[in-house]
Automatic annotation (TrEMBL):
Pfam families: DUF2779 (PF11074). This is DUF2779 domain-containing protein. Residues 377-521 form the DUF2779 domain. The lineage of its organism: Bacteria, Pseudomonadati, Balneolota, Balneolia, Balneolales.
Length: 634
């Protein structure tokens, strides 16, 4: 094996996948263009879940050896040396070929056979899922994973051409159940000591292990597959074409379209203003009469129908003819909900510099709020789903609700805050959640308010668990009675209280203000309402204190006449800042899988409590603005 310099650049599986999506991306990656931070929490969640799967899959190989060398060249040489032994099992084996490399989580050698494992986090149900259609084609939802595996196996085969290679695709098995409690902690997926952790072998039923030799042959050898799914006429030709684009830092002419909507090179406008270059803008600038195409792109229109504009060659909101959209008068005077086409029209008028209504509150919104009975319990859960469940008898991605926040608002305007977070004390979080919810004063009276229907859905999931374990859970009869009573409440679109009301539905159907931008998430709506409402400005310019916050001012000027997003302010309050539910999911997963020092656990828990409290406070703020506006107009 020829020695390479420490500066050697390698083509990887990740780059191969990016090139299959869009060959132009390889130029931006080779030049280290800035990438959007939006996807980072989701990537971290996927990485954590993959580490859980790796630890579980490795747990049946006590003789496994980690390839620990830090450089790719040294690790590849160590892999080669270890595989020269008669029988061996390697973890994180590195294979290098023609300035391309692959890292495999598990490679088991027995005689002249290499069994190679590729681990993915997409769940598979062996009772009903199939990788191929009845006509022999690979289902589209599995194609990406088989392409990834085909890339890795190409590296293995070129290092060991005379060996029989058995490819095993490993995924979470929906029909499997854990046989050991607290399994993530026992597997220690974040342990840096690099030792295989042994757990009872029956837990392997959590893993679908599928031999995919025939499907890899389809990817490698079939011309029809390459013609339809690869940039060149064969797998090998496509591989070297993409590799050369990256290594030579060559830019393939972009072919823009609907596929670009979630491009990682569409970075935040603030970063562009600070001088970072946007690959997305570079691709779209020739197609649009704008220096920064990302700022007015139709991709930001809320709701369906965006693809139609793009396919018709209309890329900017400024290009859309007003004759093709609702007029302002119709939107304002229309009865019933604000449709997605109306909302898109408002976005388009705003982008074109046309006057838009200061605020729209449909009568249906006012009617529903009038039906809400006090006290109002603004309730938010934080939950996670992990590839390896924490409770025996559960399947991969079983929902775990690990905390709640509840702001209770009384008719006289006074409020109180209640909260709970799992302390990992041996109680099953889902059941303990219900016990703690039952302790909230007057929770069965008045109206429970959620943002989206998640809280009701989560309680339905927990109720099903309780029904299956009724004889095993202390107090299950009371827990079942309480959850049943709550989930059977109507939404406030009905005329019969008590309610579990959905604030997000009210926003989507009946509310608009001109500060709204491209999102109906609670974070986006909150900032728009804070910027719009003088009442909230007066109220939250004053210090706010609770169990989690001390004298924090939630209304702060953004320097442009509006309000800063309170979720941005949250990151300045110390601890380990959390701004998204996916970040909370990763933090809790780490707490359940790692033995931290007490002070680190407290810091993580405090960050989780702060984030969850702000979610319910955000609902309170939106509601307070609405009620104040209604009172002013009466």
């Amino acid at each position: 094996m020829a020695k390479k310099s420490a500066e050697t650049t390698y083509f990887t599986k990740h780059l191969f996948g990016a090139g299959i999506q869009c060959a132009t991306k390889l130029y931006y990656k080779s030049r280290d263009f800035a990438e959007s931070k939006t996807a980072i929490p989701f990537i971290r969640h996927a990485v954590f879940n993959k580490r859980l799967l790796k630890a579980l899959a490795r747990s049946v190989y006590p003789q496994g050896i980690f390839v620990k060398e830090s450089s790719i060249q040294d690790a590849a040489e160590k892999t080669q040396k270890l595989l020269e032994q008669e029988d061996s099992v390697l973890f994180d084996a590195i294979f290098e070929h023609d300035q391309m490399m692959a890292r495999l989580p598990i490679v088991a050698k027995k005689g002249d056979t290499l069994t190679v494992f590729h681990i993915q986090t997409k769940a598979f149900d062996s009772r009903r899922d199939r990788l191929i259609t009845s006509s022999g084609n690979i289902y589209s939802k599995w194609r990406k994973y088989l392409l990834d595996f085909a890339y890795q196996l190409y590296m293995v085969q070129n290092n060991w051409p005379d060996f029989k290679i058995v490819p095993i695709l490993v995924m979470p098995e929906k029909s499997g159940e854990a046989h050991t409690g607290n399994l993530p902690f026992k597997l220690k997926p974040l342990d840096k000591r690099k030792q295989p952790i042994l757990v009872p072998a029956e837990n392997q039923e959590l893993l679908a292990k599928i031999e995919v030799s025939d499907l890899i042959s389809v990817v490698w050898d079939e011309t029809d597959f390459a013609t339809e799914h690869l940039p060149r006429s064969s797998f090998q030709e496509s591989l070297y074409y993409l590799r050369d684009l990256y290594l030579n830092k060559k830019k393939e002419a972009p072919v823009v379209g609907t596929k670009c909507k979630d491009c990682e090179f569409r970075i935040e406008s603030e970063r562009i203003q600070e001088g970072e270059e946007s690959g997305f803008n570079n691709c779209w600038a020739p197609e649009m009469a704008q220096k920064t195409p990302s700022e007015q792109h139709v991709f930001d229109l809320i709701g369906p129908g965006v693809n139609q504009w793009v396919e018709e060659g209309v890329y900017s909101k400024q290009e859309i003819e007003q004759a093709d959209i609702f007029d302002i008068t119709t939107i304002v005077n229309s009865r019933g909900g604000i449709s997605h086409k109306m909302r898109q029209a408002l976005q388009i008028y705003k982008a074109q510099g046309q006057p838009v209504p200061t605020e729209i509150m449909r009568p249906e919104l006012i009617d529903e709020l009038d039906r809400w009975q006090y006290p109002l319990h603004f309730l938010d859960f934080e939950a996670g789903n992990y590839t390896v469940p924490i409770r025996a008898g559960r399947s991969p991605y079983q929902l775990i609700v690990f905390q709640y926040s509840c702001h209770t608002l009384h008719q006289n305007g006074e409020w109180e805050h209640h909260q709970w977070i799992d302390s990992n004390n041996g109680q099953y979080p889902n059941y303990e959640l219900v016990r703690q919810l039952m302790q909230i004063p007057n929770i069965t009276k008045g109206t429970i308010v959620q943002y989206s229907n998640f809280e009701r859905t989560a309680l339905k999931t927990i109720r099903r668990e309780l029904m299956n374990e009724e004889t095993e859970v202390e107090g299950s009869e009371q827990l079942l009675e309480w959850t049943t009573r709550i989930i059977r409440r109507n939404d406030s679109s009905h005329h019969h209280p008590p309610y579990v009301a959905d604030l997000s539905r009210l926003v989507k159907n009946y509310y608009y203000n001109r500060e709204m931008n491209n999102s109906l998430s609670i974070k986006g709506v909150l900032q728009s309402v804070m910027s719009h409402s003088n009442y909230l400005k007066e109220l939250y310019s004053k210090p706010y204190s609770s169990d989690n916050f001390s004298n924090i001012k939630w209304w702060q000027d953004d320097g442009e006449g509006g309000a800063r997003n309170p979720y941005t302010i949250l990151t300045e309050t110390g601890d380990s800042p959390i701004r998204r539910g996916t970040e909370a999911m990763v933090v809790y997963g780490k707490l359940r899988a790692t033995e931290f020092r007490d002070e680190q656990v407290q810091a993580y828990q405090h960050a989780l409590l702060k984030y969850c409290e702000l979610d319910t406070l955000a609902m309170v703020m939106i509601y307070q603005h609405w009620k104040n506006k209604i009172a002013e107009e009466q």
